[in-house]
Each structure stands twice: as structure tokens, then as C-alpha cells.
């Protein structure tokens, strides 16, 4: 059976919880078509997360990699189009911060997602879940992990598809935050399951 590596992130900055964590835990071990989902949580740490991620890739040997991140305040499921070779932004959970720094000196300026992002958006909209392609994954941890996956995939043909999906807050996070909208956690999870199914159908 082929493997689909699904990663989420721990809570970060002003977010006391991260709905991606619960999704990857809930979907860990799930069989979708001829794939087994391996769900794992990454640290919001510029130094630790890439090593955790690459170790997981080597261990799991996935054919598909889908990473998830929270975009607090967003209203739609957003498959990212592109990852850029930059790390920058606020301090991570260990206090590391980078400014205008390349992720890989020898990497391309940017890599396009190899997930079927248009099909994912269409499938989700047809099923009644708001979704749209995002043209920027930012420069924080999410962009960093997406870039790492695609940089790795470039030299490893065993990876058929790799990319990143940002999701809105859950109701629980929206209530704790007080200023952002959210989705029910079960709908976030169902929408991601559908997105994964679309990746598998187009592998
Ligand atoms: N979202 C952040 C990092 C962790 C997460 O879930 C981001 O968008 O970069």
C-alpha cells in the first residue's frame, strides 16, 4: 500500500490551539483508495521542523505529501500554489526569527505545488465547502515546510505529488480568539479528507 504523509502544526503565536493537529491525528491510519494516511504533527520551529519533516519523509517513504497549516482569520480552504525560497517573519515557538533568509542557498527561487490544486478547489466547492487557490503561503513555517517538501521531491522521483493547504480556524479557536471566523472542526476534517481523495485520484 502506498503512503500519503499528512502533516499539521502545533499551536503558535497567539493561537492556543491548531485545528491541523486534530485533523492529522484523526486521519492517521485511515485508508483512502490504495493509500494509507500517515498523520504527524510538526513543531513551529524553523530549526526543528525541517529536520522532523525530512526524517518523516525518509521513514514513511510517501508517494504523496500534503502539509496543512492554520491561516487564522481566513474563511476558505486554500491550497497553496507556490512556495518561495525565503524565511522571514515573527519569532517561532523557540524564539528563532529570520529576516530575508533563503531556505536553501542552492534552491530555486520558488516551486509550484504539484498537488492538483484546481481539482481540489472544484471538488470542495461542488461539495459545498468554500475553497480557493492561494497565491502566497507567506514566509513563515508553512511556506518553509512546503518549500522543503518540493525541494526534496525535485530530486526524489518517488514523490509523485507534494504541496500545502491552509485552513481556517475551527469554531473552538474562533471562540477563544474572539475576533476571527471559524469552521466546525468536523467540516474542516471532512473537507481535507475530500482534498486528499482528489490528490489520490490524480496521483
Ligand atoms: N500556520 C503557520 C505556521 C503554523 C501554522 O499552522 C503559517 O501559516 O506559516
Describe this structure in words.
The protein has about 200 residues and is α/β, with parallel strands linked by helices. The chain is globular, with a radius of gyration of 16 Å. It has a single domain, classed as Aminopeptidase, CATH 3.40.630. The protein has a 6-stranded mixed sheet with strand order 2-3-1-4-8-5, sandwiched between helices. A two-stranded antiparallel ribbon has the order 6-7. A two-stranded parallel ribbon has the order 9-10. It has helices spanning about 20-25, 50-60, 115-125, 140-155, 170-175, 185-200, and strands at about 1-10, 30, 35-40, 65-70, 80, 80-85, 110, 160-165, 170, 180-185. α1 (about 20-25) packs across α6, α2 packs across α4 (about 140-155) and α3 packs across α6 (about 185-200). The site of pyroglutamic acid has 12 residues, from β4 and α4. Pyroglutamic acid (PCA) binds next to β4 and α4.
CATH topology: Aminopeptidase
What is the number of independent domains? Answer: 1
Biggest sheet character: 6 strands, mixed
Distance between the termini: 14 Å
Low-confidence stretches: none
Top CATH class: Alpha Beta
Write the element-wise H/E pattern from the N-terminal end onward.
EHEEHEEEEHHEEHEH
Strand content: 15-25%
Widest beta sheet: strand line-up: 2-3-1-4-8-5
CATH superfamily: Peptidase C15, pyroglutamyl peptidase I-like
Instruction: Tell me, briefly, the overall form.
Output: globular
| CATH architecture assignment | 3-Layer(aba) Sandwich
Gyration radius (Cα, Å) is 16 Å
Provide mean pLDDT, rounded.
98
The total of helices stands at 6
Helix % is 25-40%
Could you say which small molecules are bound to this protein? pyroglutamic acid
**Strand element count:** 10
- Class from helix and strand fractions: alpha/beta
